[in-house]
Amino acid sequence: MSNKPISIAILSSLFTTAVWGSAALANEEAWPELNLGDLMKVGVESAARKNQSISNTSAAVFVISASDIKRSGALTIPELLHLAPGVEVARLGNNKFAVSIRGFNGRMANKLLVLVDGRSIYSSLYGGVIWEAENLPLEEINRIEVIRGSAGQAWGSNAVNGVINIITKRAQDTEGWLVDTHGGTETGKAGLALRYGSKQEDGSALRVTVNEQRRDGGKEAGGKDAQDHWNDTSLTFRYDRPDGIDTRWFFSGRVFDSHSDETWMIPTFDPAAMYDITQYGATRITPFISRRNGGDLLGRFEQTTDGGGEVRVQTYFEKFQGDVPGASDNHTTFDMDAQHRFPLGETHDIVWGGNWRQTDHQNYMQQGGFLTASRTDTTVNLTSLFAQDELTLVPHTFTVQAGLRAERQTFGGTSPQPSVRALWTPSEQHSFWLSWSKTVRSPSVVQQTMGAYAVAIPGAPAVLVYAAPPEQSGFGNEKVRTLELGHRAQWTPTLFSDLSIYSSKYEGVFGILSQTSVPNTVIAPVGGDAACTAALINFGLNPAAPGVCVTHLYGNALPVRTRGLELSTEWNPLTAWRLQLNASRMWVDAGAGTPYDANTLLYGSSPKYQGSLRSSYNLTPDRQFDFWLRRIGGLAHASDYGGSSAMTPVTARTELDLRFAEQVTDSLELSLTFQNLLSKNEIQFHPDYMPSLTVVPQRTIYLKALWHDM
Amino acid sequence: MRYFLLLFLLTAPGAQASRTEFSAQQVKSAYVFNFIKFVEWPAQEIRAGGKVRLCVIGDDGLHASLIALDGRKVGEYELQVRRSTDPVNLSICHVLFIGEQERRRLVPIIKSLDSAHVLTVSDIPGFAERGGGIGLLHHDDRMLFEVNLASTKKAGLRLSGQMLNLAANIFGR
Lengths: 710, 173
Description:
The structure holds two protein chains of two kinds.
Chain A lengths: L4 H8 L23 H6 L1 E2 L15 E6 H7 L4 H5 L5 E5 L5 E5 L11 E4 L2 E2 L20 E8 L3 H4 L6 E7 L7 E9 L5 E10 L5 E11 L3 E2 L9 E14 L3 E21 L15 E22 L5 E15 L2 E18 L3 E15 L15 E17 L3 E12 L3 E12 L5 E12 L3 H5 L2 E5 L6 E5 L2 H4 L4 E15 L2 E18 L8 E5 L4 H9 L8 E6 L1 E21 L2 E14 L7 H6 L5 E12 L2 E11 L4 H4 L11 E13 L2 E8 L19 E2 L3 E9 L2
Parallel strand pairs in A: 5-8, 24-28
Antiparallel strand pairs in A: 2-7, 3-4, 5-6, 7-8, 9-10, 9-36, 10-11, 11-13, 12-35, 13-14, 14-15, 15-16, 16-17, 17-18, 18-19, 19-20, 20-21, 21-22, 22-25, 23-24, 25-26, 26-29, 27-28, 29-30, 30-31, 31-32, 32-33, 33-34, 34-36
Chain B lengths: L1 H10 L9 E2 L1 H12 L3 E2 L10 E7 L2 H8 L5 E2 L2 E7 L11 E4 L7 H8 L5 E4 L11 E6 L2 E7 H6 L3 E2 L1 H6 L2 E3 L2
Parallel strand pairs in B: 3-5, 3-6, 6-7, 7-8, 9-11
Antiparallel strand pairs in B: 2-10, 4-5, 8-9
Helix pairs in contact in B: 2-3
């Protein structure tokens, strides 16, 4: 479901180049005489093509172009994402990331939908994205569209706080050989991507890429080497075939194998510490390699119809296998998506369509593992229908758009997700937009079937079980209503700004339900509590073993309110110099008045402010210097975690990346990148979801060669 | 940290690139201007030495750039630049540039031209692939072009081989 109106409609409009009027014609006498051959060689300033138009978008959108990706020096998709304003990217070491938009961050941040060419990589098992399995070679990416704000009407559920839409290059645009290799320290240890693309006479094209990446482990808080290496191998292909004037086919696929080390600190029995997985009493450290492999295949058909409409049908199949101790995530997904867009009269533009997806999870929790659920096989179905109409009231000046999606998910039931948007473009230099929308997040399998989660370590002295019958909590959809206002302006031919202001009201955010005791737990010796005994037997554990059963009731517990603003600006002081300044500020008000103070949970994952200054400068036509400074602040207070200070994430951090690149020959570019230069051995984010050992990201230095035979 | 800022300030505002860089607008204009030299319209449409009517819709900036070229000689022709807002009359253009602002009406426009002798050019992504004549595309920091031969043939236009040799992609061959 890449589809959606927003993709085609809204985003491509961002790609207009600036309306620069006659100022651009300083050397008008010279340029028309350039011949075609010359034209193909001249550098186009700000080829990024973004942020320069007064775009016709009634949503907060930021586009990361292929050139941004290259110049960022990032080696993974998560690291790229903080190019966009309002996106928080924290590293939990060298192979784990927490990525989120507008708060609620975490390793399994579940309020953000991520798609690769329309294929959802949002895990219906955990909720969130398993970034360790997303190793798409960065040279394959055409652009990444980052849409902030709730977008369920256009993109479906889980687009609660935003959508990240990764779009790969057409095979026609990747002809010939390409070698992308690097070597260095830490996350930049070694990498090799090899690509070959070939075009046929009929306009069709095929490319195949093999990619191998190796990343070293970081350091533990105490300075010891951490076991968090990450190696992955993948094979990807893409085939594009135009068929006549009106029809296009596109097929893509990949197989991958990813190994990432992890060390878990599993609590042994300590009643004082068990409320909070982040503070361990006695602990046992278990290093292991989690292995994730699988593949996917996607096909898309697009046709422009005689009436001036467009039809698009897409389907994909995915198989995924992931193993961590005591749990495995094996699933297959089949997805079909169709949409039809057509103009109606002079003023209406209608898009409607539907989506059906089935994910079969098998053996996703082994008996007696760290996490144990009450069912082992689950099928999650998702069905949705949507329609929207964009009505032009004053051509090129005022449009309104209204739409509705009705979606049904196995656990969440049926939910309507409406949106209303308006765009006013009073002049070529300014545009204003306003939107109201409602989006839901559907429950993940783990959340829904978590009859209990348990720690049962063979040979360990105690069995610790957290049990919570889901029937009691009746967990359903989280809901959010968001009101947003935006302004874009091309102040001068070289200065652009984009501001958005939002207010979101969440209902029923997943958490511990309020009850009589604080925190809401019931402690009973194993065997003394019937529910606990039943749970233990259900998990294949010995109910007579020494241990404790703690019952947490989870459910749609928390009302949360967030407000914030995001600003992104771009200034080209010289044709060879581009400056981008992004800043965002957010306020969170969560669960006030509930016995369990939800604010402590949310503040640490919702930075109050973020800022980023990026400079892309061409020292000479063949030499680039890039500078990227980031500041993330207003995170959790140290006291919130209570644990030892050595394990406490920083409340604010400053990050600096530098990159120097030289085009040595027409086909070879060498670059040297420094990442995380200001690192003070600080912990960026606390491990959550899984009890991983806290790892401190280190500085990375790597040398890269990019060669292509064109 | 302060040190790096200093380093940045010292290195950043150095000599301006010696290679001439153009704005995307300039390059687009130059492409459109140059394409005309490599296209032959049916003889009944334009006589040698005749006027080539160039229309721009949905891109006011480009129109402003091109209007400066009104009356100039381009190849064997004389250029006449028009801004058309009337979709019914688009078939009177010899060259039609369709800008982003008309993205939504792209397909109806292409369909309405049918086999009229119009060379369509656009920088809307996927233009040539979707039945347009010549599409401009960004590749790294360059602007390239791709051609849909089926479309240009349908419009009765002959494109020179020299131009086709330079095209990044050719569809509908």
